[in-house]
UniProtKB/TrEMBL annotation, chain A:
A molecular function GO annotation: magnesium ion binding
Keyword Amino-acid biosynthesis: yes
Pfam families from the UniProt entry: TPP_enzyme_C, TPP_enzyme_M, TPP_enzyme_N
Source organism per UniProt: Halobacterium bonnevillei
Keywords (A to Z) from UniProt: Amino-acid biosynthesis, Branched-chain amino acid biosynthesis, Magnesium, Metal-binding, Thiamine pyrophosphate, Transferase
Protein name: Acetolactate synthase
Residue ranges constituting the Thiamine pyrophosphate enzyme TPP-binding domain according to the UniProt record: 447-596
Name of the coding gene: ilvB
Region (Disordered): 1-52, 404-427
Residues covered by the Thiamine pyrophosphate enzyme central domain: 240-375
Family indicated by similarity: Belongs to the TPP enzyme family.
Domain of life per record: Archaea
Automatic annotation (TrEMBL), chain B:
Protein name as annotated: Acetolactate synthase small subunit
GO molecular function terms listed in the Swiss-Prot or TrEMBL record: acetolactate synthase activity; acetolactate synthase regulator activity
Origin species: Halobacterium bonnevillei
Pfam families xrefs: ACT_AHAS_ss, ALS_ss_C
The UniProt record lists the keyword Cell membrane: no
Sorted UniProt keywords: Amino-acid biosynthesis, Branched-chain amino acid biosynthesis, Transferase
InterPro entries attached to this UniProt entry: Acetalactate_synth_ssu, Acetolactate_synth/TF_NikR_C, Acetolactate_synth_ssu_C, ACT-like_dom_sf, ACT_dom, AHAS_ACT, AHAS_small-like_ACT
One GO-annotated biological process of the protein: isoleucine biosynthetic process
Region annotation Disordered: where it falls in the sequence: 1-42
Domain (ACT) ranges: 46-123
Family per similarity comment: Belongs to the acetolactate synthase small subunit family.
Gene Ontology, cellular component aspect: cytosol
EC top class named in words: transferase
Length: 624, 208
């Protein structure tokens, strides 16, 4: 463990550019000494030549981009060269392109503005693919800029050539192959606008090297979406009135808040609606943060590992007001048993989500906040939900999220503060401890697996854009790079913590080096059970305990690994260590990793098995 | 943490002890009478999309069909009266919710200008080129006449004819040629326009 708060002591030979050797200083030196390079960039009339790459960077600047996450490489070099001159854009050099894409995705999640990632052709572009697919599944605004071999080599199977447009077509809102230095700036502007428009999502601009190197007189263009694209902001009044009437008539209404509530900035409207009409609120996983979980009406997350009370409410509701959700199978379980007594009011900005998985009795296409406000205004009366709300509160008591504490602790309802040290550490306790030790606006990022579910269940989210995770794609390895992206995007006084699993962490832990180089204040808690724990849980539940390839006979000492990277490392082996070590790790002003040896037998419950009935959630393996 | 003692599971009534909903949905997420038939039968229909004529648009559309497992019978694409536009005509066989999804997902493809399912009275045509054995040339010619076709090539061993018509007529004609021994068939798939004053595609003013 290095001293808390200390900047790692880089040796002279390996010292990365720090503040005192920043880009500006370096540029100054170059300007002073390397006149020939400047001369070569000037045309006969003395003006600096403008290239396609200049246009790319100017378009990013015109769009208000302040950060690019990327990795250098041959075909993208001209764009990097143009970025060298940008005063506005900070480049965060990632270790691997997947990290760049996840960081950009998280940046988009936290700010609401498109995150930008950049990579070279071929392997650079294909390494971005996981992150692009992730952004597509979670409707995160993102623009990926990829280098490409020169146009004349395209189709020749040239060195580092991949059909990036072909590969990314099914996982983007749209993508562009830049065809000329004169229009490449517009391509980037269009891609940026499209990523941010309506239902957000990723776009790609593929940049052949001759296009970025070619000269152009084109002026920077402002972001504008293609003419074929439009969104409807308001739902038709008559449809809203009919939906409002259904809600007002309901006995057991529930609001289902999806990721669209967060991304559509509709949390205030949803909260106003729920509290004015006394309607309980469940969320999807991306919808975490859409409604404060400490509110009486909050039933928290529904679905596969949702709370018992959320799933009871969804199962028995007679009117489901779904806002900004695509009814993913992890939420619905089997559609045959999903909210089968409910009339469904479905608010979504994407018409294609209406009745895709669950039929909408009242489809309302439009902006989430606008339509929820329309609904509130159109309500003829408040529904009588007194009994229903009381029932939901009863379920909260009946099905508490809970975890075992050691047998010698009292069960008188008081919260035991320190289980004895020889008991294995429960991961849920770690999540709760970190939650208690940090502010409400702390951003939580995660990898994918059991730790992610515990982070959903045992952290109390009260603000939008504080939950950053890989929901739809379920991309293990999302944790560390997303913490980096979130750190760049977050306010300086906001904390960023990452819960990761040992399996997830091993997939992208190399990005720690970025956090060290940039002295980013992130704290990573690796909930280490020396296994790909969710798979092991499924093997034990559904594959007769045949634990194939899920348990690791050896995992690195993550605290030592962190120190090797130049981060601070901590380890928790006993319950007793949890509060103090959490406190110490959070106090580090820079990257810190806490290797937490958790109880390897701990599993994630409640659980609705794939295709199952939400109301029949299992509380233990015996129920599966 | 409230002090659960056991390792064996979360507290609360077991699944069998819980209140159950009474309704049911079918595989398409539509609420149905729990006693009733859950099937939603597929039907065949023609969907027409006007698209911007740019490289890759066909790949985007066909990729969408395969990715989302939409069942397509045929797909045609070619220029229109405007050089900037192309028309894609797709014959699909899907249940109603699937057809609805096809239209909406197509609408989301950026270069797509307008999508609609054509009505039953739409004017649809398909062209087929059939190559048959030339052993009975007069009879081949008679069939070709009967279906208002045209002989494109007649040689000592093969005769190649062209026919146009709706899908049913083409199917019937091909059946009629079978007696001569069909060597090869090439069909274009259906292309179509809405009938009369009905517009096949509505182009927003700012794109005209």
């Amino acid at each position: 463990m290095t001293e808390q708060g200390a900047v790692p002591d880089f040796g002279d030979s390996e010292r990365p550019p720090g503040d005192e050797q920043g880009d500006d200083a370096q540029r100054q030196t170059d300007d002073d000494t390397d006149c020939s390079a400047d001369a070569a960039e000037e045309g006969a009339d003395g003006e600096t030549k403008r290239t396609g790459a200049t246009s790319v960077v100017e378009s990013l600047e015109a769009a208000g981009v302040d950060t690019v996450f990327g990795v250098q490489g041959g075909a993208i070099m001209p764009v990097y060269d143009a970025l060298y001159d940008s005063e506005d854009i900070r480049h965060v050099t990632m270790a691997h392109e997947q990290g760049a894409a996840h960081a950009a995705d998280a940046y988009g999640m936290v700010t609401g503005d498109p995150g930008i990632c950049m990579a070279t052709s071929g392997p650079g572009a294909t390494n971005l693919v996981t992150g692009i697919a992730d952004a597509d599944m979670d409707s995160e605004p993102m623009v990926a800029l990829t280098g490409q071999v020169p146009t004349e080599l395209v189709g020749n199977d040239a060195f580092q050539e991949t059909d990036t447009v072909g590969v990314t077509t099914p996982i983007t809102k749209s993508n562009y192959f830049a065809s000329s230095p004169d229009t490449v700036g517009e391509d980037v502007s269009t891609a940026f606008a499209l990523a941010d428009h309506g239902r957000q999502g990723p776009t790609v601009v593929d940049l052949p090297k001759d296009v970025t190197q070619g000269e152009t007189d084109a002026e920077p263009s402002e972001p504008a979406v293609p003419g074929t694209v439009s969104v409807q902001e308001r739902a038709p009044t008559a449809d809203v009135a009919a939906a409002a009437e259904t809600i007002a008539d309901a006995d057991k209404p529930v609001i289902l808040a999806g990721g669209g509530v967060v991304k559509g900035e509709a949390t205030d409207e949803v909260r106003a609606f729920a509290t004015e009409f006394d309607v309980p609120v469940v969320t999807t996983m991306p919808g975490i943060g859409a409604f404060p979980e400490d509110h009486d009406l909050a039933l928290e997350m529904a679905g596969m590992h949702g709370t018992g009370y959320a799933n009871m409410a969804v199962s028995l509701t007679d009117c489901l007001v779904a806002v900004g959700t695509r009814f993913d199978d992890r939420l619905t379980g089997g559609v045959d048993s999903f909210a089968p007594d409910a009339e469904v009011v479905h608010v979504d900005i994407d018409p294609a989500e209406i009745s895709k998985n669950i039929e909408a009795d009242h489809p309302l296409v439009g902006d989430a906040g606008t339509v929820v406000e329309q609904l509130a205004d159109a309500m003829p009366a408040a529904p009588d939900t007194e009994d229903w709300v009381a029932q939901c509160q009863e379920w909260k008591v009946e099905y508490p999220l809970d975890y075992a504490v050691p047998s010698d602790q009292s069960d008188d309802g008081s919260t035991p503060s320190r289980p004895p040290e020889d008991e294995p550490v429960k991961p849920q306790y770690v999540v709760e401890t970190v939650d208690a030790a940090t502010d409400d606006d702390t951003i939580v990022t995660t990898g994918v697996g059991q730790h992610q579910m515990w982070a959903c269940q045992y952290w109390t989210y009260t603000e939008p854009r504080t939950w950053v995770s890989s929901h739809g794609l379920g991309a293990m390895g999302y944790g560390v790079p997303s913490a980096i992206g979130a750190r760049v995007a977050a306010d300086d006084d906001q904390s960023v913590v990452c819960f990761d699993g040992d399996g997830s962490f091993m997939m992208t832990c190399q990005e720690l080096v970025v956090a060290v180089r940039e002295q980013m204040d992130i704290t990573v808690f690796v909930l280490n059970n020396e296994a790909i724990g969710m798979v092991r849980q499924w093997q034990d539940a559904f594959f007769e305990g045949r634990r194939m390839a899920s348990e690791y006979p050896w995992v690195p000492k993550f605290d030592k690994l962190a120190e090797a990277f130049g981060a601070d490392g901590f380890r928790i082996e006993d319950y007793d260590d949890v509060p103090d070590t959490v406190e110490a790790a959070l106090a580090v002003d820079g990257p810190a990793v806490v290797d937490v040896y958790i109880d390897p037998t701990e599993e994630v419950y409640p659980m609705v098995p794939s295709g199952g009935d939400n109301g029949q959630f299992a509380l233990s393996r015996d129920h599966l | 943490m409230s002090g659960r003692q056991d390792q064996e599971g979360l507290p609360g009534p077991a699944p069998t002890d819980r209140q159950r909903p009474t309704g049911r949905r079918n595989a398409q997420g539509i609420r149905i009478d729990p006693e009733a038939e859950a099937e939603h039968p597929p039907r065949r229909t023609v969907i027409s999309a006007l698209v911007e004529h740019e490289p890759g648009v066909l790949a985007r559309v066909s990729g969408l069909f395969s990715r989302r497992q939409f069942n397509i019978e045929s797909l045609t694409v070619a220029d229109t009266q405007n050089d900037d536009w192309a028309r894609i005509t797709v014959v699909v066989e899907e249940p109603d919710p699937g057809i609805d999804q096809i239209e909406k997902q197509l609408e989301k493809v950026v270069p797509v200008i307008h999508v609609r399912e054509l009505a039953d009275d739409a004017v649809t045509r398909e062209l087929v080129v059939v190559k048959v054995d030339a052993e009975r040339p007069h009879e081949v010619h008679a069939i070709t006449e009967m279906y208002s076709g045209k002989t494109l090539d007649a040689g000592p061993r093969t005769i190649t004819v062209e026919l146009t018509g709706d899908e049913q007529k083409i199917d019937d004609a091909i059946d009629a040629y079978r007696q001569f021994g069909i060597r090869e068939i090439a069909r274009t798939g259906q292309t179509a326009l809405a009938r009369g004053e009905t517009k096949t595609a509505v182009v927003p003013d700012h794109l005209k």
